Amino acid sequence: MATTTPNIGLTKPVGTEFVNLGIINENYDKIDEAIGNLETEIENIDVNGMLKTIQYTASNITVNEGMPAVVNARDFGISDVEGYTPIAPAFFTSGSYGVFVTWLSATATDERTTMSLRNVTNAPITCSPQITILYVKSSFFAQNT
Q: What's the predicted TM-score (pTM) here?
């Protein structure tokens, strides 16, 4: 006997049942309606003043050839922004030819925010990597839960 999914009630026939195109079409209609409702809900979210980005720069970081350099939140001077919750890094760059970001572990203002830089040249490079953090107003979470 068929079962239904918990969220939008899609019909899930068991493996021994024949496929009924009518049931498949009903499932498609339910999916289409659910997506339409979700799009309407997203359009109705008021995001005015909800988002903010702040760019931070770590100055004079030396990256030696063959060795990755790790830059952390202290190097960037990242701090809390009152009334806002950090979401994620929106953009990061090494800011220098020959130095590439190899990984980024970002929890925004957390001390564990780190960027690893790798030098692909044959000489040490001093650079000033940048990171842009995306913040959302803390009250956004309360009104949209």
A: 0.52
Q: Identify the three-state secondary structure at position 140.
A: helix
CB 122 within 8 A of CB 64: no
Instruction: Please identify which residue in the block is written with the tokens 């994620």.
Output: 88
Rg (Cα) of the chain, in Å, rounded?
Answer: 24
Which of 15, 77, 88 has its CA nearest to residue 51? 88
Distance, C-alpha 59 to centroid of its chain:
25
Give the H or E element holding residue 61.
strand 61-63
Q: What is the pLDDT of residues 92-121, one digit of tens each?
A: 665 556 666 655 555 545 555 667 777 777
Q: Please give the single-letter amino acid code of residue 92.
A: F
Q: What is the largest CA-CA distance in the chain?
A: 69
Q: How many CB atoms lie within 10 A of CB 108?
A: 21
Write out pLDDT tens, residues 17-37. Answer: 888 889 989 999 999 998 888
Alpha-carbon torsion angle 133, 134, 140, 142, nearest 10: -40
**Alpha-carbon distance 67 to 65, whole Å?**
6
